[in-house]
Amino acid sequence: MNRVIAPMRQGAAVGAQAIVSVLIAAIMLAACASGDVIPESTGTGPGATEVETPSVTASVSPAAPADPRVACEGIEPDEPPLEIAITARSFAYDTELIEGPRHCQPFAIVFTNKDPQEHDLDIRADGVLGPSLFDGELARGEVRYDVPGLPAGEHYFYCSVHAGGMNGTLIVSEQA
């Protein structure tokens, strides 16, 4: 006698794959659990049972870096602010390097946006994820940004709307 075995329906196969995936995830999670097992009571009286619950120890990551601008607190400007001109055109700044500001001395950026789209200029200490040092407003046309004194070093400047293509390095020099 020949037996004909009906092929498994596609929906059943997908369901079986889902069950296997859930089982694998459960096994992996169980393997990741570590630490002491602390008995925990489910209640009091007849029928109460103790359930073992794994304890989890969390590690604390280091605190976020301190605000780099603290280095400039109490330092008075010793000359009028330096003025730097930057233009945005075709979704790009006209420079990828700004040099000239000195340690903890305020400076001004005269920002000219020649695109119809709003742009700005923000400054951070260590790349786009570093502490914010200056947050310029979005603008069309020309705007003057009065930037407070920044600590010496290399900083990152960028457009908050188009950081992937509009960015560069700001070098603040040591005191002369």
Folded structure, characterized:
- The chain has 176 residues and is of the alpha+beta class.
- Mean pLDDT is 76; it is low at 3-14, 28-41 and 53-64.
- It has a five-stranded mixed β-sheet with strand order 4-10-9-6-7, with no helix packed on it.
- The chain has a domain at 79-173: Sandwich (Immunoglobulin-like).
- It is built from one helix and ten strands; from the N terminus they run H-E-E-E-E-E-E-E-E-E-E.
- Strand 9 and strand 10 (167-173) form a beta hairpin.
Shape descriptor reads globular
Radius of gyration: 30 Å
Secondary-structure element pattern, one letter each: HEEEEEEEEEE
Structural class: alpha+beta
> Which CATH class of the domain at 79-173 applies here?
Mainly Beta
CATH superfamily grouping of the domain at 79-173: Cupredoxins -  blue copper proteins
| Strand tally | 10
Please state the oligomeric state of the protein chains shown.
single chain
Low-confidence stretches are: 3-14, 28-41, 53-64
Describe the strand arrangement of the main beta sheet, using strand numbers: 4-10-9-6-7
For the report, how would you describe the main beta sheet?
Answer: 5 strands, mixed
| CATH fold-level name of the domain at 79-173 | Immunoglobulin-like
Instruction: Give the end-to-end Cα distance, rounded to a whole number of Å.
Output: 100 Å
- Roughly how much helix do the residues carry, as a percent range? 10-25%
Q: Would you tell me the overall average pLDDT?
A: 76
